[in-house]
Amino acid sequence: MEKQRRKSRWLSVPRQKSEGKEYSAREVQAASAGQLISEPAREGTGSSSLIRCLALQKWGDVSTMPGIDYRQLRASISIAEILQLIGFVPAQARGPQLRGPCPEHGSRSLRSRVFSVNLQTNAYQCFKCRSAGNQLDLYAAVTKKSLYQAARDLCEKINYPTPWMERW
After folding, report:
1. Are 98 and 122 spatial neighbours (Cβ–Cβ below 8 Å)?
2. Residue-level pLDDT at 61
3. What is d(CA 10, CA 24) in angstroms, rounded to the nearest whole number?
4. Nearest to residue 96, comparing CAs of 126, 124, 119?
5. Is 13 helix (H, G, I), strand (E, B) or coil?
6. DSSP labels, 26-87
7. Alpha-carbon distance 53 to 41, whole Å?
8. N or C: which end of the chain has fewer CB within 10 A?
9. Quick one: average pLDDT of 131-158?
10. pLDDT tens digit string along 70-120?
11. What is the DSSP string of 73-118?
12. How many angstroms separate the CA atoms of 98 and 113, rounded?
């Protein structure tokens, strides 16, 4: 009786290298919706393998999906170009260090110096809103987009070909 009930509650999702693994209907539904399951996983059931199996069923081989090469994009675009694009006007400049109002949280005073940018390291930090990162992080935060969408948008705006990578 227990086995019959259990079989009707569980689905068999084919895996790449093994015969098959049983997952509950709730796990399959949560994984297809992109949600993580909060209850502890059963032994040998990894949520990443479940999501990978569902992606294989839906899109085919996901290892060949194109992704953006963020390392190459960061190397080719300087933070000075990003600052010019977003219209940043520094209140103080000392060598490669610029300070001014934060473009992310929108400092009210133009004389504010809470936002610091180092042009040599392509890094920024705001001492008020605690935002920090590189040039792509800054552009994504100012435009309020995901990193992927911000990188694609940035490449289009400055007429730079998007650096794609085959396996990510």
Report:
1. no
2. 53
3. 4
4. 119
5. strand
6. HHHHHHHTTPPP-SPPPTT--HHHHHHHHHHHHHS-GGG--EE-HHHHHHHS-HHHHHHHHT
7. 16
8. N
9. 93
10. 999 999 999 999 999 999 999 999 999 999 999 888 777 778 888 999 999
11. HHHHS-HHHHHHHHT---SEEETTEEEE--TTTT-S-TT---EEEE
12. 9
Q: What angle do CA 36, 39, 41 make, to 5 degrees?
A: 85
- Residue 2 confidence (pLDDT) above 80: no
Give pLDDT, residue 49: 54
pLDDT tens by residue, 33-62? 555 544 444 444 454 555 555 555 555 554
Strand (E) or helix (H) holding 154: helix 147-157
Q: Is it the case that residue 139 has pLDDT exceeding 60?
A: yes
| Strand duo 123-126 + 132-134: pairing | antiparallel
Burial of residue 1, with CB atoms counted within 10 A of its CB: 0-12 exposed, 13-18 middle, 19 or more buried: exposed
| Amino acid identity, position 60 | G
Q: What is the widest separation between alpha-carbon atoms in the chain? A: 78
Q: Which two tokens stand for residue 81?
A: 């170009």
CA distance 167 to 158: 25
What letter represents residue 29's amino acid? Answer: Q
